[in-house]
């Protein structure tokens, strides 16, 4: 591991933290220590690091995990003996060419929406209030209010396992419900481009505020959470199924089904990944017994 640390330091490739924890970098606040957390300061420097990583014979000993804003991640309590790379601190955030946006993958959607609104561009307001990065949103094909990021998506520039940059157009992204080719092919999103709409700033902000107010009313945003835990299975409503089997408020250790929204599992403070897994299993069993439906998790499980 020291060779990676020294390489990043010697070449000034960004910020590093040793022995931090998934508790600090995920919205659920759960998970074990991370050997090395690396924030590249530019895409160019990340590519330099990645080249060193894939050509190093030790890379198999130390897995690499790409983290967005950690808003959809449940990490195990075990130490992660590897490198977590977070692209949130990249220098260039976005470029606007007419109503086409090219954004770095680490940009947070909330700040992006406000910044674009000032320039008179909207069209992604439905994503307001999601605490996520562009890379995470594209990877998960995140959506809300009947829309998904794939509706705005044009193309992405990604790094493949061999260290080559490839361009992927929308038709080849294999977007499905909370899925894309990124997970399947273990790609790393560097940049993505989107189609926007020319709009009045006030109109955009009105829409954004409405969406955020709605989320505050319905979701347990004061608690540590990872958004909806289970996928919706049309035509059923997942939270209603969880509610009707009596799981609302059900608690194991410090992991609890939110009283505000039954599809949000929250960390009351010191929940372990095991508390969360037991709670997930309990809900899945109850729902399966009553409705004969298997609730599939939306979260990404890391280091289990
Ligand atoms: C309060 C709250 C509300 C939410 N509301 C919604 C909602 O309305 N709709 C919805 O769909 N989701 C929602 N979510 C879930 C979550 O925000 C989304 O899944 C989001 O897309 C995750 O983005 P992230 O940047 O946090 O990614 P992370 O959670 O950090 O990562 C998610 C996955 O994407 C991968 N990834 C991240 N960046 C990259 C990259 N650059 N290249 C390759 N892989 C990458 C990670 O490896 C991981 O597999 C919510 C979460 C919270 C906490």
Can you walk me through this structure?
By secondary structure, this protein is an alpha+beta fold. β9 (143-144) and β10 (147-148) form a beta hairpin. It has nine helices and 19 strands. The protein is 30% helix and 28% strand. The protein has a five-stranded antiparallel β-sheet with strand order 6-7-13-11-12, with helices on one face. The protein has a four-stranded mixed β-sheet with strand order 1-2-5-3. Strands 15-18-17-16 form a four-stranded antiparallel β-sheet. Bound molecules: flavin-adenine dinucleotide. Flavin-adenine dinucleotide binds next to β3, α5, β9, β13 and β15. The site of flavin-adenine dinucleotide has 32 residues, from β3, α5, β9, β13 and β15.
- The count of DSSP E runs of length 2 or more, i.e. the number of strands, is 19
Under CATH, the topology of the largest domain can be stated as Uridine Diphospho-n-acetylenolpyruvylglucosamine Reductase, domain 3
Q: Output the radius of gyration.
A: 20 Å
Strand content: 25-35%
Weakly predicted, low-confidence segments: none
CATH architecture of the largest domain: 2-Layer Sandwich
Overall geometry? globular
* Helix proportion range: 25-40%
Largest sheet: 5 strands, antiparallel
**Count of distinct structural domains:** 3
Q: Please identify the top-level CATH class of the largest domain.
A: Alpha Beta
**What is the H/E string?**
HEHEHEEEEEHEHEEEEHEEHEHEEEHE
Provide the list of bound ligands, each named once: flavin-adenine dinucleotide
Distance between the termini: 21 Å
């Amino acid at each position: 591991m020291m060779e990676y640390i020294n390489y990043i330091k010697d070449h000034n490739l960004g910020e590093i933290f040793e022995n931090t924890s998934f508790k600090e970098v995920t919205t659920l606040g759960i998970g074990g220590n991370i050997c090395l957390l690396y924030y590249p300061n530019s895409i160019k420097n990340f590519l330099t690091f990645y080249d060193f990583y894939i050509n190093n014979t030790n890379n198999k000993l130390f897995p690499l995990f790409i983290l967005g804003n950690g808003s959809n991640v449940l990490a195990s309590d075990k130490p992660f003996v590897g490198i977590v790379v977070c692209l949130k601190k990249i220098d260039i955030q976005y470029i606007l060419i007419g109503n086409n946006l090219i954004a770095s993958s680490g940009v947070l959607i909330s700040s992006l929406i406000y910044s674009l609104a000032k320039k008179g561009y909207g069209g992604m307001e439905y994503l307001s209030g999601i605490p996520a990065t562009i890379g995470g949103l594209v990877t998960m094909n995140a959506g809300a209010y009947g829309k998904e990021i794939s509706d705005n998506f044009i193309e992405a520039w990604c790094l493949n396992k061999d260290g080559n940059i490839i361009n992927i157009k929308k038709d080849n992204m294999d977007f499905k419900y909370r899925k894309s080719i990124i997970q399947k092919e273990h790609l790393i999103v560097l940049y993505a481009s989107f189609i926007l709409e020319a709009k009045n700033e006030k109109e955009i902000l009105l829409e954004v505020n409405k969406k955020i107010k709605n989320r505050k009313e319905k979701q347990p945003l004061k608690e540590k959470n990872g958004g909806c835990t289970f996928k919706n299975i049309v035509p059923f409503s997942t939270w209603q199924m969880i509610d009707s089997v009596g799981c609302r408020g059900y608690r194991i250790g410090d992991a609890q089904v939110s009283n505000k929204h039954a599809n949000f599992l929250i960390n009351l403070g010191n929940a372990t990944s095991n508390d969360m897994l037991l709670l997930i299993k309990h809900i899945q069993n109850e729902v399966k017994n009553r409705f004969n439906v298997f609730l599939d998790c939306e979260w990404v499980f890391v280091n289990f």
